[in-house]
Design brief:
five-stranded mixed beta sheet; 3 domains; alpha/beta; 8 helices; Rossmann fold; 423 residues
Length: 423
């Protein structure tokens, strides 16, 4: 098992600005506000997909942005909503906040969805601000920014495919060819003391994890050699690739080896006999391999085993084996491992929208609502300015300033602007 990690930055779409428009129709001489609302920005949604097995695709692209909402239009027409961005992740992916390291969500079920970054709200058009006393408002709201977050995707990779076989049959070499893994390779027994894992890329969004599992010896089911450690890893795989030395160069009988390995597997856990098993007859570049291949096929093909003659040294037949493994995986239902460690799930808290404070004698107002309000205000327009002042009163901002001791003519700092306070 190893940890596959990707750090990505996400930004949801901005809401479209509301429109300022007026009726200019032939029989409507007085006109009237006619601006529509902006569309909401697109959200970023995570979706757990059992067809994706690694985080490989997220290593090539680190920033993802959803579509912005469209501006409002005249005739009170709404702007189009920004399209949501759906990011598919493997089942079992932990999503962590990059700043705190805390888990936001555990994507543990196929089809599970979670909105990780919400799109901004579309701004209201000037038609929404008309009242009996303000019949022709010349201002509209701007859309709000979409949520932005940097997350760490963390996946505990259990091998989809396990390479099994006696020591020195070429498992490590085959792993290094199929994947980007760089296992130790040497011409002596028991080189691999722990599973080496690598990711095999088939196509975009199509990859699987393969493990070169330590060479097995007789008596492993009783704990001999690497015993239970070996078999525990085998138990977690979905497909087994049984690598045989078809050359018989070490005086071994590959058919006997096949039966001995499977006997150990079944003695440890009878369910292992139900796992799909592909046979890779390796070292076909060596003398006597053709003769042994005939015997292997004669013995094992009638039992339903698919046999792929390969040479890890010359790479002959390796591609055929790779695609055979992938096709077998597609037809094998995964069994998800349950992890026992405790996790602190921390869902995102909504941002505080208004902050009123006094720092070093300065009165300061800030927050997402205030930013939206000030961006929507036309300070050259009396109606817009009045709306701004009334909004501050209705939200209790003026009352909070008074509690902090503000007096007439004191300066208030709002999102980079300076205002004089008058009650």
């Amino acid at each position: 098992m190893f940890i596959d990690v990707a750090k990505i930055k996400l930004k949801a779409g901005k809401g479209g600005d509301g429109a300022v428009a007026f009726r200019r129709e032939k029989y409507e001489p007085a006109g009237g506000p006619f601006g529509g609302d902006g569309g909401d920005g697109g959200s970023i949604i995570l979706q757990a997909d059992e067809g994706i097995r690694t985080l490989m695709d997220f290593r090539y692209k680190r920033f993802y942005k959803a579509e912005d909402g469209e501006r409002g239009k005249t005739k009170k027409q709404y702007g189009k909503k920004g399209q949501d961005l759906i990011l598919k992740v493997p089942v079992g992916t932990l999503v962590k906040d990059a700043d705190s390291g805390k888990v936001i969500i555990d994507m543990k079920e196929h089809g599970q969805v979670y909105t990780i970054a919400k799109g901004g709200k579309g701004g209201r058009g000037n038609a929404k601000f008309a009242t009996s006393t303000r019949q022709a408002p010349k201002f509209a709201e701007t859309g709000t920014e979409g949520e932005e977050i940097t997350v760490i995707l963390e996946l505990k990779l259990l091998a989809d495919v396990g390479l099994v076989g006696f020591p020195n049959v070429g498992k490590s070499t085959l792993l290094s060819i199929l994947s980007a893994a760089k296992p130790k390779i040497a011409n002596y027994h028991f080189t691999t003391l722990k599973p080496n894992l690598g990711v095999v890329q088939i196509d975009e969004g199509k990859s699987f994890v393969i493990a070169d599992i330590p060479g097995l010896i007789e008596g492993a089911h009783e704990g001999a050699g690497l015993g239970h450690d070996f078999l525990r890893h085998v138990e977690r795989t979905r497909v087994l690739v049984h690598v045989l030395d078809a050359s018989g160069m070490e005086g071994r009988n590959p058919i006997d080896d096949f039966y001995k390995i499977n006997e150990e597997l079944v003695k440890y856990n009878p369910k292992l006999s139900n796992k799909p098993q592909i046979i890779a007859a390796n070292k076909m570049d060596l003398p006597e391999a053709e003769e042994w291949l005939e015997k292997i096929e004669e013995e094992l093909k009638p039992m339903g085993y698919e046999i792929y003659p390969i040479s890890a040294a010359t790479m002959k037949g390796v591609d055929e084996l790779k695609f055979a493994i992938w096709n077998t995986l597609l037809n094998t239902k995964p069994e998800y491992e349950t992890f026992d460690e405790e996790m602190e799930i921390t869902l995102k808290e909504p941002e505080k929208t208004i902050v009123v404070k006094k720092e070093n004698g300065r009165y300061i107002i800030e927050g997402s609502y205030i930013e939206k309000l000030i961006n929507s205000t036309n300070f050259d327009n009396l109606d817009s300015l009045r709306y701004f002042q009334n909004a501050l009163k209705q939200k209790g901002v003026v009352e909070e300033l008074k509690k902090l001791g503000i007096e007439d003519n004191d300066t208030v700092f709002i999102c980079g602007y300076e205002f004089e306070f008058f009650d």
